[in-house]
TrEMBL record:
InterPro entries: aa-tRNA-synth_II (IPR006195), aa-tRNA-synth_II/BPL/LPL (IPR045864), Phenylalanyl-tRNA_Synthase (IPR002319). GO terms for biological process: phenylalanyl-tRNA aminoacylation. Transmembrane segments: none annotated. Residues 1-130 form the Aminoacyl-transfer RNA synthetases class-II family profile domain. The lineage of its organism: Archaea, Methanobacteriati, Methanobacteriota, candidate division MSBL1. GO terms for cellular component: cytoplasm. Its EC number is 6.1.1.20. It comes from the Archaea. It is an enzyme of class 6 (ligase). This is phenylalanine--tRNA ligase. The keyword Protein biosynthesis applies. Keywords: Aminoacyl-tRNA synthetase, ATP-binding, Ligase, Nucleotide-binding, Protein biosynthesis. It holds the Pfam family tRNA-synt_2d. GO terms for molecular function: ATP binding; phenylalanine-tRNA ligase activity; tRNA binding.
Amino acid sequence: RRERIDYQHLAEFPQAEGIVMAPDLNFRHMLGYLKQILIEIGIPKIRFRPGYFPYTEPSAEADGYFPELDEWIELLGAGMFRPELLNPLGIDHPVLAWGIGFSRLAMIRMGIEDMRDLHNNDIDWLRKQPLR
């Protein structure tokens, strides 16, 4: 991953991925699933915007609003796998895919301002970090 390293971006990132496949799925199903997932993890105010990922089309990104920061934060990328990826596998129906990064959520919940601190190897510092 080519990424400029700063307080909100690292070269690598932990991510949970999801895939749903069924004959009658569409993009609106994906947005509904993602909205429900984000609500369940405590992020009720969500917005979607167009995104680009080479393996999916259409694609979207989701931001969550965090009132304690008065800021929208990017949380996930998602899309529908392109047919040219699925056809060689014999899959002829829609496949939804998404990836939710944990680092930004951890920063917010722990009150950390710099993502690089999540990889701090000072065990005493880590033990003192509260979860909110």
